[in-house]
Design brief:
261 residues, alpha/beta, Rossmann fold, four-stranded antiparallel β-sheet, 10 helices, 12 strands
Length: 261
């Protein structure tokens, strides 16, 4: 069975050299390989500076890898055909405000990718927008709202709608819950899990929150300083970590959630 998404030895090198002097902004993401199946969630875990957000950008085409290839349903994704990637791999960002234009309505925010990537008529685009809003728990009247008129939870639902509007196969979410309060975070997590089950999406979740990682992911990939530490089923990694680094991460999480005596 062909994997939905295959990452084959994808790496990235950011050169920060100037006349032989190594600068602080140099970074190397060592070659990484993994597969993602339809309906599966893979968590990418690591501390700040581990390269997890960079890996997400490589997947959606926001950055170009210096080595390796990415395949979608067995077809190689070419860096010269960004439209194919834009249609099939969509991203949700941590801070929804930064990805939502404050000067246009919700309808315009959602219509823009449809205009750029589909042949839908104006009427068909409106129907698609209403359907997508309803899918993420918003109502038709939200089409006429501006960003500042929405709550934090509604903005994150809009960011999810923006990711879903083109009917992608894979969603890459970079710390999508970090800015939400606990109650809204729980509602959003449950919504994403529900939609994944209904739509069969492949979901890549980038986070350092091990509680959420354990709750929603099937497998986890651990990064440290641009290096792949280990990858495996989430419960196996939590219960039987192979590396000392992963063990420390798990113990740190457990110390936070375990009741104090």
């Amino acid at each position: 069975m062909t994997a939905l998404l295959s990452v084959d030895k994808v790496g990235f090198v950011q050169r920060g050299n100037l006349k032989g002097i190594k600068r602080a902004n140099s970074f190397e993401l060592s070659p990484i390989s993994f597969e993602l199946n339809s309906g599966e969630t893979l968590a990418i875990v690591g501390e700040n500076g581990s390269g997890k957000s960079l890996l997400g950008k490589l997947l959606v085409g926001a950055e170009k890898p210096t080595s390796g290839n990415i395949y979608l349903n067995g077809q190689k994704l070419s860096p010269h055909n960004l439209k194919q990637r834009c249609l099939n791999i969509r991203m949700i960002f941590q801070h929804s405000n930064e990805s939502l234009n404050p000067g246009i309505t919700v309808a315009k925010i959602l219509e823009e990718p449809l205009i750029l990537n589909t042949q839908l008529t104006s009427s068909e685009r409106k129907q698609k927008i209403m359907k997508t809003l309803n899918t993420v728990g918003l109502v038709n009247d939200h089409m006429y709202f501006y960003r500042h008129m929405l709550s934090d939870g509604q903005r994150q639902r809009l960011a999810l709608a923006k990711a879903l509007i083109l009917d992608p196969l894979v969603i890459v979410a970079d710390e999508p819950f970090a800015a939400l309060d606990p109650s809204v975070r729980s509602q959003t997590i449950n919504l994403i899990m529900k939609l994944q089950m209904e739509l069969g999406l492949g979901f890549i979740f980038i986070s350092h929150n091990l509680g959420i990682v354990r709750h929603i992911s099937d497998r986890a990939l651990i990064l440290r300083h641009g290096q792949l530490v280990e990858i495996g089923k989430t419960e196996v990694i939590f219960n039987w970590p192979k590396s000392e680094y992963t063990e420390k991460l798990v113990m740190s999480h457990q110390s936070l959630v375990s009741p104090k005596v």
